[in-house]
Specification:
This is MinD-like ATPase involved in chromosome partitioning or flagellar assembly. The protein is built from twelve helices and eight strands. It is an alpha/beta fold and 263 residues long.
């Protein structure tokens, strides 16, 4: 049975797409079949991390939502982009469903919207047809209809925030919504912490404020800044301190697997 994980933040710029891509890479490295869906239809971008040329996309999530193709027709195997150089490929896979970068497609979504229930159908069809162990949903920041759907169908919500007052206030709103939607596992991921910060104190303060576990506190990463969204960090710098911290998320994800009895 597939474990569905949504990565979300109340505001943009928190680094949720990098977190999604690198969690997918880490799970694939453990031998799992991992799907990634870019539900940030208004401002898509996670395909860039996996090295996918937007002009080379034959079909996208948009095509499925407009009835032009089956959702599995939009899948791109991006496994090679997450494998560290010199490492064995192994049995794991990362399969991406991107959203369209075409201006007309984005404008149509903004103007007309789409039947959100189709997104729900597509998510479950991917899980079944691709025989996924995990499906990661990279959401649109803030609160909108597709975000609420993504959260509602999730076994685990990774809620990303920075040490920033606006993020703190928005996170409180999102957590309340997720609790009302009865998401089984809620986990906070604090990103872009400065080296001068006391990580233990920061974790304790945030956990106490939200009564929600902080899976990890990720450092502000020069490695990611240098990479500039041109790849997945796990593939080029697997020994990065950022990744060492991010691996602390994996036990929470494992506890979210349906039927594990640990969520």
């Amino acid at each position: 049975m597939t474990c569905i994980i949504s990565t979300h933040s109340y505001r943009g710029g928190t680094g949720k797409s990098n977190i999604t891509a690198n969690v997918a890479a880490l799970l694939a490295g453990q031998g799992h079949r991992v799907g990634v869906v870019d539900v940030d239809i208004r401002s898509p971008g996670i395909h860039a991390l996996f090295g996918v040329d937007p002009h080379a996309m034959r079909s996208t999530l948009n095509d499925f939502l407009w009835g032009r193709c089956e959702v599995e027709d939009a899948v791109i195997d991006v496994t090679q982009s997450v494998v560290p150089q010199g490492a064995a490929l192994g049995a794991g896979r990362v399969l991406l469903v991107p959203s369209s970068m075409r201006t007309g497609e984005i404008a149509r979504i903004l103007k007309e919207g789409y039947a959100v229930e189709l997104l729900n159908q597509g998510i479950h069809a991917l899980c079944q047809k691709l025989q996924l162990d995990y499906l990661l949903i990279d959401t649109h920041p803030g609160v909108n209809e597709e975000t609420l759907l993504s959260i509602a169908v999730s076994d685990c919500l990774l809620l990303v925030l920075r040490p920033d007052q606006q993020d703190y206030q928005g996170t409180a709103v999102t957590l309340e919504l997720a609790r009302r939607l009865e998401v089984p596992q809620l986990v906070l991921v604090v990103n872009k912490a400065l080296a001068s910060m006391n990580i233990a104190e920061l974790r304790d303060e945030i956990e106490a404020a939200y009564q929600t576990p902080v899976a990890c506190v990720l450092p502000l990463s020069e490695d990611l800044i240098r990479l500039g969204s041109a790849g997945v960090l796990q593939a080029v710098r697997p020994d990065s301190p950022y990744l060492a911290a991010l691996k602390q998320v994996l036990p929470y994800i494992a506890r979210s697997v349906p039927g594990s009895g640990q969520s």
